[in-house]
Design a protein that fits this description.
single chain, alpha+beta, two-stranded antiparallel ribbon, 112 residues, 37% helix, 21% strand
């Protein structure tokens, strides 16, 4: 009898291996154990989860920073993007380097 002509009785899922999702009768006849199937499916799920997480994390762009290195201080500032242009707070940039004050004079800003 050829392997394609074997007994084609219907096998219920619960009869194949208890606790294991439906497995092809061919795998059962070949001698693949239920434990192997459970470990294999668990490994495939873990790999799929890792790949999916890597895909999600790769899409997130890293936050931009401006680093300043001087004799007075070394520091980093976040860069804000508005209307596809990068901006840094001017007071936050100058304040670690020394005393800075800002005044509004009409439509002008004065820094001292």
């Amino acid at each position: 009898m050829r392997w394609t002509e074997r007994d084609r009785r219907s096998i219920r899922r619960s009869q194949a291996w208890p606790g294991v999702p439906h497995v092809s009768p061919f795998l059962r006849d070949v001698g693949v154990s239920a434990g192997f199937i459970l470990r294999w499916t668990a490994a495939v799920r873990v790999v799929a989860l890792i790949l999916f997480s890597a895909f999600l994390l790769s899409g997130a762009s890293p936050e931009k920073h401006l680093s300043v290195y001087s004799i007075a201080a070394n520091y980093s500032l976040p860069v804000v993007q508005r209307e596809s242009r990068d901006y840094v707070g001017l007071l936050e940039l100058l304040e670690p380097l020394g005393k800075v004050t800002a005044k509004v004079d009409g439509s002008r800003w004065r820094l001292h």
